[in-house]
Amino acid sequence: MYRILLVDDEQNVLNALQRELHGKYEIEAFISPVAALQRGREVKFDLVISDYQMPELKGTQFLKQFGEIQPDAARMILSGQVDIDGLLGAINETHIYRFIAKPWDESELKIAIVQALDYRRITLENTRLADAYRNTHAQQQCRTVDRVHRIILVDGDEAALKLVFNGLTQPAAYGGMYNAMRRDFGQSEAGGHHDFKYVVDCFGSGLEALEHIAKTPYELAIVAYKLPEMDGITFLGELRKIHPDAACILISASPDMNTLSQAVNEAHVDSFLHISWVNYELKADAMRRSWNIYQLNAAVMQALVSRDLVLENRRLAEMMRE
């Protein structure tokens, strides 16, 4: 039976959740996130569901620390008091699987839990089999085939499109970043050294981009929320139908809570960047641009490394099953 950790500073919320999930899962509930962290050092959990606004720790702080203790546990936030910065942190730093708003719909919550646990199960099984394959075929893993990563960039703002393109294609130690992040994931020895190569295609129209995507596979899509014919969430939904394994980054200068919730629950973005290229007082100063480019490059590397490792594990797991 799957074990779920519930953390909320309101006992009535914990009681309601325990009633709804009783009999289906092994449940442990804590009012204190500090006590929950200690329990996480003692017992393995498959899923942790946390409130955001708590006296001792914010939900993002708690989930980040819990992720360091149990990185394989799926993570969700169930809250009615998350601010924009908090949800951005939940997406980009703690990598939550879902955000559920209070008061929650019982069916929606149960479906999200089933999906989170199923995704975790498949990912862990593929990782286990892939590691077994790597150990069995260690000598064959020394030589790796490097490929060109294809990135599609979509933004209806021509000036912003140019700035992002220049940021992505400026000289940078992408290869070093890519291999450093693989080492952080513990895969450098098995996978060898990778020469990171990439191309970037730009589109100002979402419809034109989708027509092109139907003919050309992409590893990563970087999409502005505001597009001429549709919003970025809709675009990414269409992209997922064509290339379900593509990594996705959404960019917005003024995100709201609804957009962020959709980004997590519908578009399943790898990162959401709150980026404004124009400082209305200093007119797009160099410091702002440099910080935006830094955030963008880091998000690109993290999204591609995570995607590549998931697909590599899936491929090796299939070979191990044969």
Automatic annotation (TrEMBL):
Q: Which PANTHER family match?
A: STRESS RESPONSE REGULATOR PROTEIN 1, TWO-COMPONENT RESPONSE REGULATOR-RELATED
Protein's UniProt keywords contain Phosphoprotein: yes
Alphabetical list of InterPro entries matching this protein? Bact_response_regulator, CheY-like_superfamily, Sig_transdc_resp-reg_receiver
Sequence positions bearing 4-aspartylphosphate: D51
Q: Mind telling me which SUPFAM superfamilies this protein's record contains?
A: CheY-like (SSF52172)
Instruction: Provide the Response regulatory domain boundaries.
Output: 3-117, 150-290
GO biological process terms on file: phosphorelay signal transduction system
Record-given protein name? Response regulatory domain-containing protein
Highest rank taxon of the organism: Bacteria
Keyword annotations: Phosphoprotein
Q: Which SMART domains match?
A: REC (SM00448)
